[in-house]
Amino acid sequence: MKARLLGLTLAAGLATSAAAHHAGEVVSAGDLHVGHAWTYEVAAMAHAVDVYLTIDNEGDAPDRLIAASVDFANEIEIQAPVVEDGVLKTATVQAVEIAPGQTLTFQPGGIHLVLQSVQRTFEHGQHFDLALTFERAGTIAVEVEIEEPEHEDDQEGAKPAA
Q1: Model-level pTM?
Q2: Which residues contact 137 (CB under 8 A, 6 or more apart)?
Q3: Angle at Cα 132 formed by Cα 100 and Cα 30, nearest 5°?
């Protein structure tokens, strides 16, 4: 348990300085502000979809993200990098705390949501609604934007080296 908390603390520290992937809508509930919710377009055969977003806590008290839901996935896990026995791994965590004054960015390689057993396909430009449940702020509904996957080998107009 101590290793999980250490990993989650490390991940939260790394995630706070990351820039948002797109300038999506920001939804507020009390002192919490959730925005920049996005995911990549995935193959039709994909069973899981990772979702990324940013949470700002402008209050004086911490809050915790304790659950999330959509109508087309069987469950949603909160996954985070954790250190177990000196090894960095990704693990499912029960909740993520957002400290007072903290901006926490869920991002690839860091904390993120995983929609399991997805029963729908998405193309870039589409959106879907996601409900986030916080211990203090209650439930916040956000719109998740579907973005085109990035391809490192997609270099339009690139000329071969001479």
Answers
A1: 0.78
A2: 29, 30, 31, 32, 63
A3: 45
Please tell me the least confidently modeled range out of 13-17, 97-101, 149-153.
13-17
Pick the closest to residue 37 from 26, 50, 52 (CA basis): 52
CA 102 to chain centre: 15
Report all structural domains of the chain as residue ranges with CATH numbers, in order of start: 2-147 (2.60.40.1890)
* Residue matched to tokens 């790394």: 14
DSSP code of residue 5? H
Task: Dig out the tokens for 22 from the structure.
Answer: 């797109």
Containing H/E element for 136? none
What is the DSSP-derived secondary structure letter of residue 14? Answer: H
- CA distance linking residue 22 with residue 53, whole number of Å: 9
3-state secondary structure 66-118: EEEECCCCCEEEEEEEEEECCEEEEEEECCEEECCCCEEECCCCCCEEEEECC
Find the Cα–Cα–Cα–Cα dihedral 75, 9, 20, 131, rounded to 10°: 30
| DSSP category for residue 148 | P
Angle at 93 between CA 121 and CA 30, to 5 degrees: 80
pLDDT digits (tens, 9 = 90+) for 17-41: 333 345 568 999 989 999 999 999 9
